[in-house]
Amino acid sequence: MTNKPYILIVMLALLAVIFAWAVFIPKESVTEKINKTLQEQKNKSDMFMKGVTFSEIVNGVKYWEIRSVTSEVNNSTGIADLNQINGAFFKNGKPSVKFISPKVQWDMNKKSIRIETPLGFDKKYKFETSYLDWSLSTKKMFTDRDVVFEGDNLIVTARGLSSDAGLETMVLKGGPKARIRQDGEVLEIGARVFEINGGTGSILASGEAKAVRGDLFIRSESLFYDKGKNNASAIKSVRVIYKDIRAWSDFAVYDIVKNTVLLSGSARAVRGEDELTGDRLIIDLKNNKIMIKGRTKVVVDEDNLTREAR
Question: From residue 159, how far is each of 125, 223, 267 by CA, in Å?
């Protein structure tokens, strides 16, 4: 008899808990459960394949080809995950850029691919980045992450890349920098934007362009590095600093092999208290001399100047 009150209290407490659960705690409806189940099924792969080759061909034009070790294709979402891949972009029907990657996601509806941590290479360069996107709508390769290009005696770093599938025209942003090795020294070029010609390896650096090699500093609005000629041309508002020499001009050419800087167009140079102008000024970096070609307006001490009048 003495246990009945306790049993009644326990039963009332249990009923209170059940009532609270029924009234206050939200529960999934049957419809929500069905939708959730359908979504889970939708996210599952419809097909799992091994050793398959995929490609994007539109109107008879092949844009890329990817060989994957394993692949999962979801027909509901139109997304394919391709794993452990070897691939290539095509230009004029031939492979132009090859790449390897642990994973590629292919959106079959949008006709685009995302390549994760690719290692790519063509005849002149190899490159790495966190991911690389390609879309049929733009026919461009794109990334807004850090990218590194490496070629013969040349390394280029940037944050952001836009390029055609053949790497023939590459635009690099995010403070791109180039390091060019020559005779044990390094010429560093920087600017706001780089345009790289993949065929020739030349670089057009635009926006606060600068070049530095040892004691030499060149600044201009833009700078063109010609890989074939192995020189760098500074264009507009050129300023050159080399040890105790300060020079200005509209245009300048730095010959990397000869180690000379030719200034033209309102060329002017200052060394200590001496100032000189001429049609063309040549700074001989190896011998630390300034030479004048053309008309001379100022004559300086012969120890610092060799004049070559017309």
Answer: 17, 19, 35
